[in-house]
Structures are given as C-alpha cells and as structure tokens.
TrEMBL record:
Transmembrane domains' residue ranges: none
Keywords: FAD, Flavoprotein, Oxidoreductase, Redox-active center
Keyword Protease: no
Organism: Mycoplasmopsis mucosicanis
Homology family: Belongs to the class-III pyridine nucleotide-disulfide oxidoreductase family.
The protein's name: NADH oxidase
Lineage: Bacteria, Bacillati, Mycoplasmatota, Mycoplasmoidales, Metamycoplasmataceae
Entry GO MF terms: oxidoreductase activity
Domain of life, source organism: Bacteria
Domain FAD/NAD(P)-binding: 1-309
Cofactor field: FAD
Pyridine nucleotide-disulphide oxidoreductase dimerisation domain residues: 339-435
InterPro entries per record: FAD-bd_OxRdtase, FAD/NAD-bd_sf, FAD/NAD-binding_dom, FAD/NAD-linked_Rdtase_dimer_sf, Pyr_nucl-diS_OxRdtase_dimer
Length: 455
C-alpha cells in the first residue's frame, strides 16, 4: 500500500513516526512546501523576547531524520497543488525549479496545515505588515525586534499569539499597542474575571489596548513602509504591524470533500474524510468532533495535530483507536499571568445551545496558612445547572507556583461528559506542601452544588 502524505509539520511528523514504528516497511512519500519540518511556532514569541539565541530547539524533527531514521521518501520545497481523488493522483509543484509532475497513492493523508488570516484592507501589502506562523516569519520578527528604528509596534489580534508577541516586543523595549475588534482579550478561552486582570497588568506595564476597534487600513508615507494603522475609531502611528487574527486551513487542493465554513475537512473518529474513506485529514486541516457541542470544529493546537496524526496512522495500520473528541485545552503565560482553560466559556456555552450555563469562581491561596509561603490561585467552572454537566473550566495563578496542569482533570472530565458530583468526589491527594484539603479544585464544585461553607 502506497501512502502519500501532504505536509510534514506536527500532524505529518506524528503520522510518520507512528506508522513507521508500527509498520517499519510502510511505503510513505511525503511532500512538504517548506524546507523544514516540525517547527514549534508557539516558541516564536519566546525567541523574539530574547530568551534564547539559537532556534534549533524549535524543531523536534528534521527532514534528514524523517528520511534516514524512518525511511520516508520526503521531498521538501514541493507543494501538492491538485488532487484527483478518482484517479488517486496528485499533481506536485517543485518550488525550486517550477516543474510539475504527478504521483499516485492508495491512501492519502492530508496534513496541509493552516495559514494566518489576513484582513482584506488597504495597505496590507506594505513592508513591515507581517505574519507570525513559520520559521521564516520568526526570523523576520527577530530582525524587527532588534532594529532600533522600529519603535512603535501594532499587534492586530488579541488572542494568544497576539498577547505573547505583545509581551515579547515590550520586553525588547518597543511601544506596543494591541488592537482587536472584541471588547476583551483572549475572549474565546476566558471569561471577564480572567481577561480583566491580564488587561490591567498589561496596562500597568505600558502596553496599550485598543479594544473594540476594527482595523480598516494601513498607511505609508513613502508608499513602501507602513507608517500608521487606521481603525474605525482613529489613526495611530506604527513602525511595524503584526497580524494575529487567527488561522484558516490550507485545503484549497482538497475539492469535493465535506468541509466546515472555514474550509476544514470534516473527518470521522479515525481521521478519515466523511466524503472519501481513502483520504485522511489531520492537524489544522481537519475539523474534529467537539466533546461538548458535538459538532466538528477546527481547533488549531499542536497537541490536537499530534494526536490526530497518531490516530490516522494507527487506523491505517489496522489498530482502530478512535479520536475521543476535542475540548480545546490551552494555556497562556504572559505578563505574570499563568492561565489555562478547557471546554467552553460561559458566553460561548450560552451561544452554543446551553442557554442555562452558569459559572462559579473560587479565589484562594494555594497552600495552608501555616506554610511559609502560599500564592493566590483562581478557578472558574462552567456548568449546566439542570444536569450538573461540566462544560468548561479556567484556572489562573500569578506567582511562582503555577497550577496550569490541574486543567488536565477538567479536560478529561469534559471529554468524558462527567458531572460536578462525579469529578468532585474523585480520589485526589492532600499535602500541605502543594494544596489544601478544601482546595481551588474542589471548592468551586462544592459551591456549584450549593455548599457555600464559611471560610
């Protein structure tokens, strides 16, 4: 059986490693449009901030490793531009010399990834209006961060990448303004009690927030370099604009397949296209079933990419381990805030059929008062009062003790459809070095059950 793999970043690399581990003589030909594989884009902001100098650690695999260690016929700088699913044939463009050729397959695994969404506004083509996704993008951002002529930086988009880059450029001494059409930052993942704290911290450090504003134009004084950014509420000077408003699947070549409205390929629990059982889609290119809303959603996190590649490889190898569903577990570390969330926020839950969704929040110190040190931690749980089903959770801490991994418990509970009583009575430990008997994990669930104990 001949397998063609389109793309070899997180999902593609995971697919190769898994299938070649289970079936060492599996025949895989992989086409990758870039010159590298497995680039950890989540490390771009850390690199820009100057926390390390050499970017080698941002790659956990390489074309040479996939070729030599796993025996894959990998061709970098090659892009699959069309796919004939009747003939089981792909047309490939050699990006080095411009030549084209065709190749055939028995099974096709599409890991084409995603690309930053670029607003359709005047001036988007100006120099210094840049994206943040690839290794090449990262190298340009490093140059801008170290360029003394770049003083004012506009971050367009107040999601995770935007906030992380805002901190990175702030660390490099730039004057940073974050623009977003929404009224709160990171609003897809956190409710106001968390976002407002981070907004205040950013403001206290001198980072400006231009929220509730839509970017409508970029201007240039020399018709080359961006000089200002125009929103529906004003015009602001800038030397650099970084576009971070989200990602869109790169699935243009995958015609005649069922997709979501943003172009993600809808797959079954084994990563097969629901339209064609000989075609698999993994990573950012696919839409996975959401465990809460039960519809297919395009959730562009590296963790989901890796697992979807694994599931597809195991299925091709005859090991039917289904993808259990996605809940969007994520984390952010910026401006002294250590945040993590999973599932739905209260606002998102209410907009997705859970009209009665409520949330309960508990803020406390993480360890008993008799310990020499303890730090504040906050936990919010989103749930249905009728069924007590857990729909989402958010955790924040602000000191040296970071409690983000506690979210794993909530992620598993949401994925399995557990209720608050079921999770609240889970057998967990108490040790004063780490927590309290009535701790930030347990107490908000007790509050949701009406048990409001006196402190």
């Amino acid at each position: 059986m001949k397998i063609i793999l389109v793309g070899s970043n997180h999902a593609g690399t995971s697919f190769i490693r898994t299938l070649k581990t289970v079936i060492p003589d599996a025949e895989i030909t992989a086409y990758e449009r870039n010159t590298n594989t497995s680039f950890l884009g989540c490390g771009i902001a850390v690199w820009v901030a100057g926390e390390f100098d050499e970017p080698g650690g941002l790659f956990y695999s390489s074309p040479e490793s996939l070729k030599n260690d796993y025996g894959v016929n990998l061709k970098v700088n090659h892009e699959v531009i069309s796919i004939d699913k009747e003939k089981k044939e792909v047309t490939v463009l050699n990006l080095e010399d411009g030549s084209k050729f065709t190749d055939t397959y028995d099974k096709l695994v599409f890991a084409g990834g995603s690309w930053p969404i670029e607003p359709r506004v005047k001036g988007i083509e100006f120099k210094n209006v840049v994206l943040a996704k690839t290794y090449e993008h990262a190298k340009h951002l490093i140059e801008y961060a170290n360029d003394p002529k770049i003083r004012d930086v506009a971050i367009v988009g107040a999601g995770y990448i935007g906030i992380e880059l805002a901190e990175a450029f702030h660390i490099k001494g730039k004057r940073v303004t974050v623009y977003d059409i929404k009224s709160h930052i990171i609003n897809r993942y956190f409710d106001d009690n968390f976002t407002s704290v981070l907004e205040r911290k950013m403001a206290s450090e001198g980072v400006k927030l231009a929220l509730g504003q839509e970017v409508v134009e970029f201007k240039s004084q020399n018709n080359k370099d961006v000089s200002s950014i125009v929103t529906d509420k004003g015009e602001y000077k800038t030397d650099l604009a970084v576009i971070c408003i989200g990602f869109r699947p790169r699935t243009e070549a995958m015609t005649e397949l069922m997709k979501t409205t943003n172009g993600a390929i809808i797959v079954d629990k084994f990563q097969r296209s629901v339209s064609n059982s000989d075609v698999y889609a993994v990573g950012d290119a696919c839409a996975l079933k959401h465990s809460v809303t039960e519809n297919n959603r395009n959730v562009t996190f590296a963790t989901n990419a890796v697992k979807s590649g694994l599931v597809a490889a195991l299925h091709i190898a005859g090991l039917n381990i289904p993808f259990p569903g996605v809940v969007g577990t994520n984390a952010l570390n910026a401006f002294g805030c250590h945040y993590t969330s999973t599932g739905l926020t209260r606002e998102v839950a209410r907009a997705n059929g859970f009209e009665d969704a409520e949330s309960v929040t508990w803020t406390d110190m993480d360890r008993p008062e008799f310990m020499k040190s303890s730090e504040k931690v906050e936990c919010s749980i989103v749930y249905s009062p009728k069924t007590l089903r857990i729909l989402g959770a958010q955790i924040g801490s602000w000191g040296e003790s970071v409690h983000t991994e506690t979210i794993y418990m909530f992620a598993l509970a949401i994925q399995q459809g557990l209720t608050i009583p079921e999770l609240a009575l889970t057998d967990v430990f108490f040790l004063p070095h780490f927590n309290k008997p009535f701790n930030f994990f347990l107490v908000p669930m007790l509050k949701a059950l009406g048990l409001n104990y006196k402190r």
